[in-house]
Amino acid sequence: MAPLSDAVTEIERLLEESEVIPYGPEESAMVADAVRLAQDAGEDDLLYVARMRQIASASMTGDSDTMFTAFSWCLGQHDSDPARFPSEIDDMDLLWYYKWTSEAVALNPAFPQSQVDQVLDDMERRYRRAGLGLSGVWQAKMSNAAAAGRFDDAARFRAAREELPRDDYSHCDACVRSDDADFFRRSGDEATALKLFDEIIGKNVSCGSEPARAQGAALLPLLRAGRFDEARWHHFRSYRAAAADPDGFGILASHLVFLAVTGNAERGLSLLERHIGDLPKDPLDVARRFYALVSYGVLLDAVARTGHGEIEVRGSDIPDVAAIFGTETRRRTVAELAAGSWRLAAEIAECFDARNGNQYFASEIERARAFADEHHDLPIEHQTFVPTEMTEPPQPQTAAEGLELAREAIIVKNDPDAALALLGEFDDLPEPELQPRLYRTVLTICRARDDRDGALEAVKARTEALRAQGLVQLADVEDELGLALYPPFNTDEEARLRAVLDRADLEAATWVEVLVSLAGLLGSTEHPDEALELAREAVGLAESAELDQLSGARYLLAQLLLQAGQPETAAEALDAVLAVEAERVWRIRVLDMRARLAGGLGQFDAGARLADELLDLLTTAGYRDGASAAAMLAAHLLADGGQPDEAVNRAQVAVRHAELGDTEGLNGHRFWLGRFQLQSGQPDLAVESLGDAVAGYDRGEAEEAAGLEARYWLGIAAGRAQDFRTSYQALVQVATGAEESAEESLVELAVRSYLELGNLLLAVEEADAVGNYETALQLARKHERRELIAEALHHLGQAKMKFGDETGLADLDAAIAVGREAELDWFIADVTDTKARVLAALERVEEAVSHALTAADGYAAVGDEGSAALAELLAGRVLAEAGRSAEAVGLYRASLRWLPVGTPAHTGVSLEFGELLEKLGQTTEAAKVRADVAE
To answer: Which of 241, 315, 311, 306 is nearest to 277 (CA)?
Structure first.
C-alpha cells in the first residue's frame, strides 16, 4: 500500500480532476477510484466527500445501484455524526440529493409502496427539521404519484407545491415544467402539456437532460396538434442531446414511437440497433426498461408491417441484451424481438401494477398497441432496408458449380481460405473440360497464400489436364515456363517469355497465353508502350480465333490503356467485355473498373447504373464487403452527377452493409453518408452520420487527418443545422488539432476551420470573429498558401468593416492583389463586389458604383451572369438611394438583360424596376415591365 500521504494526494487529485470533465465513463471511473482508495486507506472523511461526489456522478450517468449505495452510506454517516459529516460540502448537498433518490425508488417495483412512502416522508421530515421550503418535497411526491398513474394524488401534491414560493431546494424551472407537462400528458390533457412545453422552449430553460426529455415527450402531442415541422425539429435536437448524454437512453423510447407512427420505421430500426446495448444498463431503473421495451414493440411491429419482419436486429446478440430476453446469444429477427419486447413489458407491468394497486402500466401497453392504428405522414429521411443476411448462393450440386463459387471466393472476395474450403468439398473432379480451370484456380489460391510448392503442383496438374483436352502445345509451354506465366510476375522471367514468342509454330491459344503474361510483366516495368502493343495483339488474336481468353486479354488491355492515359479507349475495351461476358466473376471485375472509369470520364449516370449492377451481383454472390464498396461507389457517382438524394440512398446501403459485416471502412462510409446528406440539404441527418464517424475514428487507430476532417464536416453540418454549440466545439477542436499537428497536409484544414469559426461568430455578431480570421491569415501566410491568404483577407476585411474598423478596406484591397497574383478571376470579382457593398454602406456613392460595375464586368468575363446581374443591380440601387434614380434606370435594364425571363431573380428585379419607373413618372414603361413579368 502507498504511504498514507500519497493516498490522500491521489484521492484529492482524482476528485479535483473529475470535477472538470463531463459526466460519463471516464469521470465515474475516477470517482470510483477515489472511493476505493479512501476505503483502503481508512480515510473516512475523504471517503464521505468521495461518496457525496459519487451520488451526483451515478445519478447523471444512470447508475441507480451506485447512487442508492452512496446515498445510503452518506446518510448513515451524517446521522451518526452531523458535525463531522455535514449535509453540505462545497456544492454537494445531501438534502438536495434526496430529491433524486426519492424519485428513483419509485422506478423499481421491488420497492414496496410502503417503502416508497417512507422515503418520501423521511425527506419531508428532514426538510422540515432543517427549516427548508417544501416545494421540492411536493414536486417529488407529485412525480412519483404521476409515474404510478395515481393522478388524483399527483394533482393534490401539485396544488400544494403551487401554494409555496420557490426556494433554494425547489426543482429547477425546466424540471418543474417538464414534470408538469408529463403529468398533464399522462392524465390525458395534451393541450396543457403542450402549453407548458412551449414555455420551456420559449423561455429557453434547461437543466441536465432538459429540454431533451421534454422535447421527446412532446413529439406525439405535436403531431396530433398538426405541428409537424416543429415535431421534426425537436426530434433531431432531442435525439442528438440524448445520444450525447450518458443517461440519455430513457429519452429514446419517445423517438422510436415517433418514428413508428410517422412512417420512418427504417430510421427507427437504425436508432434501436445503435442503442440496444444500453438496455441492460441501470437494472434498478425498471420503469425505464419498461418504456424502452414498449417502444421496441411499437417500432418493431411497424417494421414488420413493411414486410421486413425477418430482418435480423443488429445488437440483439449482445450477451447482456440476449440475457434480458432469456434467449441464447444470437441475433433475433424483428418479429422475434418484437414478441419478446411485448412479453417482457407485460411482465414488468404486472409487477408495477401489483405494487401500485392499479392497472396503469397495463393500460400503457394497451395505449402503445393502439399506435399501430395511428399514422402521421412526416418523412424524416429516406432509408433503404438492407437484408441482414446476404443472398446465400445455393449449395453447389455439381463440381462445376462448386468451382465457380471457389473462383468467386478467390478472385472477387480475395479469400483464399474460403476458396480452398469450397474446392475441398468436391467429391469428384469436374468434367475434364473444366479441369484446366480448376487447377488454374488452385494455382491462384496457392499464389495468394504464398504456397510456391502448391502452385507448382497445380501447374503440373493443369498441364496434364490440358493434354487430356488435346492442348498439347499449351501444356508443353506451361510445363516449360511454369510460374513465369502467372502473376505476380518476375522481371527475371522476361527473356524466357520472349523466347517462346519468337517461335514460329505457336498455336493461337498458346500465343495469347504468353502474350498476356509478357504484357502483364512489362506493364509493371519501364516498357508500358510495348506492353500495350502486346495486349492489343493478344486481343486481336483471341478475337479472331474465338478463344475463351478474350475477356482476360481485353481486361488487361483496359488496365494498360488506363496506365497509358487513354481512358476512352480503355472504356471501349471494357464495354466489349460487358457486351458478351455473362459469367458473374468476370462481370464483377469488369463492372467495378468500368464504373470507376465512368466517373473519371464524367459519365456519372452510366457509371451509377454500372455500380448498381455491380451491387446486385455482389449481393447475389453473398459478398458483403464488396456490396458495401459498390454501394458507396454508386453514391459517389450519383453525387457527382447532381443526384444527392440518390447518393444518400446508396450511401445508406453501404453503411448498413458495413455495419452488418463489421467492415473496416465503416467510419469512412459514415463520413461520406454525412457529406451526401449535407449536400442534399439534410444537415440534421448529416450531424448524426458525421458524429458517428467521428466517434468511430476516436475509438480506432485511424490517421489523424481522417478524424480531423470528419470533425470539420461535423462542425459545418452542425452550423447549418443551427446547432451552434456543437459546431463551435467541433471546429475549435479541428483548428487547434490541425494547427498543432506537424502534418503539412493539415494546414488547409486548420485555416478553413478558423475561417468557419469566424463565419460562425460573425453570424451571431460576435467581434471575436475578427481574431479567428486573423489567425487563419497568419497560418496561411506562414505556410505560403496563396489562395487561402486571399480568402482569409476577404473574410477579415468584411468582418472588420462590420464592426466599424475601416482598416478592413485595406484588407479587401490586399485580397484583390493576392487574387491577381494567383489569377483568381472570379475571386477578384467577388471581393470587388464585397468592397462595393462596403462603400455603399459608408455612403461613398461614386466609389461604390464604380466597384460594383467593375465586379459585374469581372463576373461576366468568367461566365457568371447571375452574379453580374446582381452587381449591376447593386450599382443601380446605390444611385437610386442617393436620389439619382434617373441614372439608375440604365443599370436596372442592364441587370435584367443578364437574367433569364421567368426566373425568380428576373421577376424580383422587374418588380423593383417597375416601382422605380413609377416614381420617375414613367408609368407606361413601368406597366410594360410589369406586364413582361405577368406574361
So the answer is: 315
Is residue 372 within 8 A of residue 255, CB to CB? The reply is: no
Query: What is the CB-side half-sphere exposure of residue 453 using CA atoms within 13 A?
Result: 0
Q: How far apart are CA 215 and CA 225, in angstroms?
A: 15
- Is 405 inside a domain boundary? yes
354 in the same domain as 440: no
Cβ distance 539 to 512 under 8 Å? no
Count the alpha carbons within 13 Å of 788 in the hemisphere toward its beta carbon: 23
Question: Considering the domain boundaries, does residue 792 fall inside one?
Answer: no
Distance (Å, rounded) from C-alpha 671 to C-alpha 706? 9
Whether this model's pTM surpasses 0.70: yes
Nearest partner of 587 among 403, 404, 430, 444, judged by Cα: 404
Q: How far apart are CA 770 and CA 777, in angstroms?
A: 11
Whether residue 506 lies inside any domain: the answer is yes
Same domain? For 296 and 334 the reply is yes
Q: What is the DSSP letter of 24?
A: S
Q: Would you call 259 exposed, middle or buried from its count of C-beta atoms within 10 A (0-12, 13-18, 19+)?
A: buried
- What pLDDT digit, counting tens, does each position of 877-900 carry? 999 999 999 999 999 999 999 999
Task: Give dist(CA 259, CA 236) in Å, integer.
Answer: 11
pLDDT, tens digit, for every residue of 314-323? 999 999 999 9
Residue 285 lies in a domain: yes
Final residue of a structural domain among 90, 125, 156: 90
Residues 417 and 361 both lie in one domain: no
Nine cell digits for residue 741: 499537428
Q: Which residue, 758, 754, 780, 756, is CA-closest to 768?
A: 758
Q: Give the chain's domain count.
A: 4
Residue of 707, 750, 711 lying closest to 727 (CA atoms): 711
Range(s) of the domain holding residue 494:
490-581
Orientation of helix 550-563 relative to helix 508-523, angle to 10°: 20
What distances in angstroms separate CA 809 from CA 508, 812, 879, one per listed residue? 76, 5, 21
Would you give the DSSP letter of residue 413? S
Residue range 801-860, pLDDT digits in tens: 999 999 999 999 999 999 999 999 999 999 999 999 999 999 999 999 999 999 999 999
Distance in angstroms (rounded) separating the CA atoms of residues 227 and 202 = 15
Please indicate, yes or no, whether residues 560 and 501 belong to a single structural domain of this protein: yes
Helix (H, G, I), strand (E, B) or coil at 784: coil
The arithmetic mean of pLDDT across residues 351-360, rounded, is 96
Whole-angstrom Cα distance, residue 217 to residue 200?
A: 13
For residue 210, the cross-strand partners are 207
What φ, ψ does residue 65 adopt, rounded to 5°?
Answer: -60, -50
DSSP code, position 305: I
